[in-house]
Design goal:
- The protein is of the alpha+beta class.
- The protein has seven helices and ten strands.
- It has a two-stranded antiparallel ribbon with strand order 1-4. A two-stranded antiparallel ribbon has the order 2-3. It has a two-stranded antiparallel sheet with strand order 5-6.
- It is globular, with a radius of gyration of 19 Å.
Length: 259
């Protein structure tokens, strides 16, 4: 989207249509949004981790992310498009009534280049200079080690193949269930540790650790159930519908892939 001071692209009508597709992905140019007066909180940011399935807008299909991606979180909005019979998702900065952006004059880079009439400029910057969690933390910060350990123990790229193995039956199924259960327990332990030992509340966990195991598993039609022996048990959910997989940017979204 462009202002009158940026005349090279079609003028933004501020209709809110793009904003109702969900929040934008963040780039290095957006670091200033988290500093100084009126800074955004990291609680506004969701991390999509490398290997996590996301709809690749230019390629038009669901693909695992090659690298992590940060995006402004979405908020449930009855005014945005209906997905699978439920409410749609809008950028959390979209204010109602009036479809007004709470940050319009300082809006993220993707919002500045996006035009509803022509998404060429957005497609050109789509994978360039994306922000990562490491951009917010100094080298050697203790949380970098915590996040790296979480990546190793809760490997999001393993979820889909393990879900297939779980449904295969036999020893392969038992082994997959055991590994998925370990991942779920590890993820819960990391989130508990952030809250209890580091004083980082749950509202920040999706930034530091990404989406939780229950959410990642639901995308693969897996369910977490309480278990008296292990605390948690992973099982295939025959009635489950995969949760919407976030779109990395807000090009016109695929109907099965809302943020």
């Amino acid at each position: 989207m462009k202002t009158e001071a940026e005349p090279t692209s079609p003028a933004c009508r501020r209709c809110g249509t793009c904003c109702q597709k969900g929040g934008p992905a963040l780039h290095l140019q957006d670091l200033h949004l988290f500093d100084g007066p009126g800074a955004l909180s990291l609680a506004m940011v969701v991390t999509l981790r490398a290997g996590e399935p996301a709809f690749d807008q230019p390629k038009g299909r669901l693909l695992p992310l090659a690298a992590e991606l940060l995006k402004l979180r979405g908020a449930e909005s009855p005014n945005s498009e209906r997905i699978s019979g439920g409410s749609g998702w809008a950028c959390a900065l979209l204010m109602q009534p009036g479809n007004a952006c709470a940050l319009y004059e300082r809006r993220p880079a993707e919002c500045r280049v996006l035009s509803c009439q022509d998404t060429t400029a957005l497609a050109a910057m789509y994978e360039l200079e994306r922000l990562s969690r490491a951009d917010f933390l100094p080298a050697g910060h203790g949380l970098l080690a915590v996040m790296a350990e979480h990546e190793a123990l809760v490997a999001v790229a393993r979820v889909a193949p393990l879900a297939v193995a779980l449904r295969a039956g036999g020893q392969e199924s038992l082994d997959a269930q055991e590994e998925l259960t370990r991942m779920a327990l590890a993820d819960r332990a990391f989130r508990t540790g952030l809250a209890e030992r580091a004083g980082i509340g749950p509202e920040f966990h999706e930034f530091f650790l990404g989406r939780d195991a229950a959410t990642l598993f639901a995308v693969a039609r897996l369910a977490l159930r309480p278990d008296a022996r292990t605390g948690l048990r992973v099982q295939a959910d025959p009635l489950g519908q995969p949760l919407p997989t976030p779109a990395p940017a807000h090009l016109p979204p695929h109907p099965e892939n809302q943020p």
